[in-house]
Amino acid sequence: MNLHDQGDLEQSLTNLTQWRGGDRQPAAWEQALANHEQSPRNSGLLGRAVFWRMPTAVAASVAILLVTALMIAILPEFGKARSVATMRSSEPSRKQLGTAGVSNGAEFNDRSMSYTNDNFPPSSAQTAPLPARDVGGGTSNDGALRQNAADTMLLSAGIGGAGSNNAFPQDVGATGGDRQVVRKATIELEASDVRGVFLKAGMVISEAGGEFIEQSSLTGEGDTAQASLTLRIAANRVHAVLTALHDLAKVRSETQGGDDVTAAIVDLEARLRNEQRVEKELLELLDKRADAPLEDILRLRDQIARVRQGIEQIDGQQQRLSRLVSLATILVIIRPPIEKGEPTTQSEQSGLGKYFGEAIKDSWSSGMRFLADTLGGLLSVLVGGAIWWIALIVGLLALRQYLRRRAGLA
Amino acid sequence: MADRDMPRDQMPDKQLLASFAAGDRDALGELARRYERSLLGLACGLLGGRRDLALDAVQEMWLRVIRFARNFNGQSRVKTWLYRITINECRALRAKIARDAKRQAASVIHVESPGKVSEESGSDDAQRVREAVGRLDDHRRTLVLLCYHAGMTHVQAADILGIPLGTLKSRLHATLTHLRQSLPEEVQA
């Protein structure tokens, strides 16, 4: 046989794919059928469900969970949501606060503002790490809040304006650089033990650092107790003191602000230099005209005295401003929880029916809020992670195509 | 009604598959009667004459048919489907054997080892052709064996391989030329 001959080679190739098994049918199909029926995955509906449906369902669930987790990890909205959730979980329930949803919203806004302000601490505080609750932020909304806060501070100080880009860094260096800012903060705490928190709040100051309690008051007892403290704190410790106050009790509201007194200080310095120059000239004149008439000399002395008085006044104003700049003012207000006031008496007066009504109403609004949050979260996952869903679908389609091709279905 | 009364040996393949999917085991037997021997032959050729592997491949093919009979969408002929599955199974088996051989660092891939002893007995010429075919790459081997498989037309082969007829012919020509060149010179004499 010549295999280089077309016919011989073709015949050889044909022979290669011939089954030489005699007349007996191999019946591989019977063996396959027997194997298939013996397989537990094919033993009834349960077997099929366990061996075919379950792995598919589990694989699909795992894939969906992975994509969802990925989106939660990377979507900034979820970072913010986490921080809000953490903040909410650390707070008492709305019922405990005794405030309506609207007031809670206002409170949240206050917090946002305060946290934004935390990002502009004076001098040393600006090198401190951001508070943990702010780490999850970084959204465009936060950016807007920061800009708003910066604008608010600048407007209150009478400088800059909305959208003033260079105002932001200037304000950050509140007591450093060229800017001289008088910082003020107000924090409202809610505590059952007003007296205890009042005493603890008074201990957050550092007397060695020149800090002191400017004013303090504690009125009432038990549920009607109220207290307030005006703390004078080193400007670079505002953030640390506020953090310490946060740890003492629940924070109901917190605001921070600052007055830029740079212009006033510059003005005082100019006036001081001017007065000092006038005083020097008058003294020189007095020396040169020692032989002048007594009346003229007395008039000159009067003028020198007036100038000296002016210099002393300016010096005093400068010192006062300097003290204000170096020591920030924190007003601490401590109140008992509101629910122990009016709402309790109302519920006591309303009877059992009203109590259940309120409970059902609260449960209903909680449920609706949860539903809204869940839907919002789902929408965020679906819309925000669209690219990942598309990737997952494409991947699953490719896998399906591959499996079908393997099975010979394609 | 008439279709249901039709004898199995006269039923078209598609109907047999549908009957099997509906629970008629004998319908699969009829399909096997029609194609199993041919499929075993092809698998045997693709697997270097290893009858045991060919039986495994065809058995696995039937398992897939049993599993996916309900999903058969009729986009291709049943025969084409069976051949495609068989070819895929043979490829998977060869890949598995190659992997195992690599893992054991031993050249035990009978289908590609020159001078190996096949279970399939045959003349020296047949053995040389088998070895030459075994040295071809996977696609060429499949193409040439499928084209010269008994009863297979080029149109059917092109359909099974999913390539145009013209492409199949040109590739077949090139493969045959390559195959002739790779055969030992003494065979020519």
Report what the structure shows.
- Helix content of chain A is 64%, strand content 11%.
- By secondary structure, chain A is an alpha+beta fold.
- Chain A is elongated.
- The two termini of chain A are 41 Å apart.
- By secondary structure, chain B is mostly helical.
- Chain B has two domains: 1-113, Rna Polymerase Sigma Factor, Chain: A (Orthogonal Bundle); 117-189, Orthogonal Bundle (Arc Repressor Mutant, subunit A).
- Chain B has helices at 2-5, 13-21, 25-46, 51-68, 78-103, 124-135, 138-147, 154-161, 165-182, 185-188.
- The radius of gyration of chain B is 18 Å and the shape is globular.
- Chain A binds chain B through residues 1-4, 9-10, 12-21, 25-33, 35-36, 405-409, and chain B through 25, 28-29, 31-33, 36-38, 40-42, 44-46, 49, 51, 54-55, 58-68, 71-73, 81-82, 84-85, 88, 120, 122-123, 125-126, 128-130, 133, 144-145, 148-150, 176, 179-180, 183, 187-188.
- Main pleated-sheet profile of chain B: none
**Which band does the percent of strand residues of chain B land in?**
under 5%
Strand count of chain B = 0
Oligomerization state of this entry?
heterodimer
Distance between the termini of chain A: 41 Å
Report the strand count of chain A: 5
Q: Summarize the main sheet of chain A.
A: 5 strands, mixed
Span between termini of chain B: 63 Å
Low-confidence stretches of chain A: 83-176
Q: Report the helical percentage of chain B.
A: 55-70%
- What characteristic shape of chain B results from the CA principal axes? globular
- What would CATH call the architecture of the largest domain in chain B? Orthogonal Bundle
Structural class of chain B: mainly alpha
Structural class of chain A: alpha+beta
What is the tally of helical segments of chain A?
15
Number of domains of chain B: 2
Number of helices of chain B: 10
| Percent in strands of chain A | 5-15%
Predict the CATH topology of the largest domain in chain B.
Rna Polymerase Sigma Factor, Chain: A
